[in-house]
Specification:
The complex is a heterodimer. Chain A has eleven helices and 13 strands. By secondary structure, chain A is an alpha/beta fold. Chain A has two domains: 25-143 and 279-302, 3-Layer(aba) Sandwich (Rossmann fold); 145-276 and 310-331, Rossmann fold. In chain A, strand 10 (252-257), helix 9 and strand 11 form a beta-alpha-beta unit. In chain A, helix 2 packs parallel to helix 10 and helix 5 runs parallel beside helix 6. The longest helix of chain A is centred in the N-terminal third of the chain and has 22 residues, at 2-23. Chain B is mainly α. Chain B has one domain: ABC transporter involved in vitamin B12 uptake, BtuC (Orthogonal Bundle), CATH 1.10.3470. In chain B, 74% of the residues lie in helices and 2% in strands. Chain B has 13 helices and four strands. Chain B has helices at 3-14, 16-44, 51-76, 84-99, 104-127, 133-152, 180-198, 200-210, 212-217, 222-247, 259-269, 281-300, 306-331; strands at residues 157-158, 172-173, 176-177, 250-251. In chain B, strand 2 and strand 3 (176-177) form a beta hairpin. In chain B, helix 2 (16-44) packs parallel to helix 12 and helix 3 (51-76) packs across helix 11 (259-269). The relative contact order of chain B is 0.19. The model of chain B is unreliable at 10-16 (pLDDT under 50). The chains are: A alpha/beta, B mainly alpha. Chain B: InterPro entries: ABC_transp_permease. Chain B: Keywords: Cell membrane, Membrane, Transmembrane, Transmembrane helix. Chain B: Its main location: membrane. Chain B: This is ABC transporter permease. Chain B: The chain crosses the membrane at residues 21-44, 56-75, 82-99, 105-126, 133-152, 172-196, 225-245, 257-275, 282-300, 306-326.
Chain lengths: 336, 332
Amino acid sequence: MKVNRVAAAALAAGIFLTATACGSDDSGSSSGSSGNSDVTIGIVELNLSNPFFGTLQKATEAAATAKGWKTMKAEAKVPGDSATQVTAIENMIANKVKAIVLDPANPTALNPVVKKARDQGILVITVNATLTPIEGADATFATDNTEAGKLIGQWAKASAPANPRIAMLDFDLSDGPAGGRHNGFLEGYGIKDGDPSIAGAALTKGTIETGQSAMENLLSAHPDINVVYTINEPVARGANTALKNKGINNATVVSVDGACSGVQDVKDGIIGATAMQFPSKMGELAVDAIAKYLADGTKPTAGLNDSGTTLITDKPVDGLESQTSEWGLQNCWGEK
Amino acid sequence: MTKLDDAVLLEKEDRAGPWRAALSSQIAGPLAALVLAIVIFSATTDSFLNPGNLSLIAQQSVVVGTLALGQTLVILTAGIDLSNGAIMVLASVVIGNLATDGNVLGALLAGLATCLVLGLLNGVLVSQFSLPPFIVTLGVLSVLTAAARLYTDSQSYPITSEFLTALNEGPAFGGVTITYGVMLWIGLTAILGYALTQTAWGVRVYAVGDNPRAAALTGIKVKRVLLSVYLTAAVVYAFAAWQALGRTPTADPSGYATANLDSITAVVIGGTSLFGGRGGVVGTLIGALIVTVLANGLTQAGIDSLYQQVGTGVLVVIAVAVDHFVRTRQTR
């Protein structure tokens, strides 16, 4: 019995260690050995269950490795998990990294620890999202999410039927990108929150199944919905299932992301238009900026450096620049 | 069946009257809450009380509802399973991946095998090593969440097989579809309800949950009962994985991240005691419906979804308070 207990304790400890290691991978991963092998940078990402953040992390790491640098990586466990990111940055400061590429889980929670890092001379660049105030970091490389929302809002306005009934499938609006897209869409469409053409809004968790449930609930109350704004392409996929189950085939669905699976949905007619982001470019631009700083002390331009947004649709509208889904499939991110 | 089992069953029959009364009163609370919510939403929105929407509520409940049936078994033994959502998600991505080769039945069986292996792992750690279920399943949850991500490289698999999505189909009555998934959910509830209340196994499960030492003294093999509970729950989770593929025809490793807590919520609101030994699957079915009704009704009433979480939280606290009240009165 006693032996059993000991074995069990060891087993439990093993499971726990594995679990912790999976949650936050602080351990340094070494790389090629060139002249710069004494340079280590930190990469702090959001939850990698989202392939977007995985793409961003891999691109950043690849760019750093190509320069012969070492990397320390960590990521939030769930959306909004700034506590894990704070701990990771503290560890990186202790390990004397030269720079940190941070995708902040919260616009304000990370300010103190980022200030601590910068006070030690560490260059901190945020990618994908920004701190508030944006000057909290040395520079930001991100999608202008308001601009992305505006693009799909303008496209939806030009493509929607005469009597639009809009559904807004949101993500927690306190999230910077989510709020930017929401407001950008409304601005592009030329309406405000509370406009009578908005049939209803519902929160999703940015996943397929929560998008489906939210769409089903809104359709139950408003069967006449014919325009659907979605926070991202998984939610659009779920919304499509709900629309299809209800026998609605002509709704105008717009989204943001430009993942390969989402572009394929544009090609298949499930999504009318999506605003493509370029996560790899964010990471590469951030690493280039760090290289310049390390070489001659030149800091990157403070504030938001737009990594670009491209409207992808097979039904272009006048006065709005866009690319086809064919082009999109050449330039998308994530698994094809 | 041993003589002791007979004795326990006999004793139970003797007390059939009060037992039935207690059981029905356990369901009465959740049922009243469900009816109240339905009445309120029917009165405040035009669209809630239409047959199509009510059928939708049932369809929206099946995945977490099925998971919660397995969770009920574990909680009845005074355990808890934090890993059930992750087990289901891993099974569904295994099925989704293997089904791309076209062998859907094999894929489904592989999903069942995945659940059984993980149920066995949980069950052995809890029963043979006497480890606390909370910690065991917390660890397994972490490992499996990462495993599903590594296995799929964080991508999702669209499901095209009609067999795998069959649970989303079903006969339509005047435009209202009763899906096979909903039937399966109700069927599983009936089978587990029967097993818990009418068989010797069920009596042992309640006895172990109520007081494992006393149960052991009456000759019940506590460890074996615990293992059987985790394995039975695993089979139920495999059904939940199939339900998930039917409802959302995509095997998504990042989906259902809070399904474990949602299933516990359904069990607790359904009147099953977290201290074990009291409650049942019918209450859990009602509990799952209550959670869905809140989300569905509040969205239709145009109220911020965050209030859905407020409402659910309040109900959980009320349910636990009622349970505490009942327990302290029993021991007085």
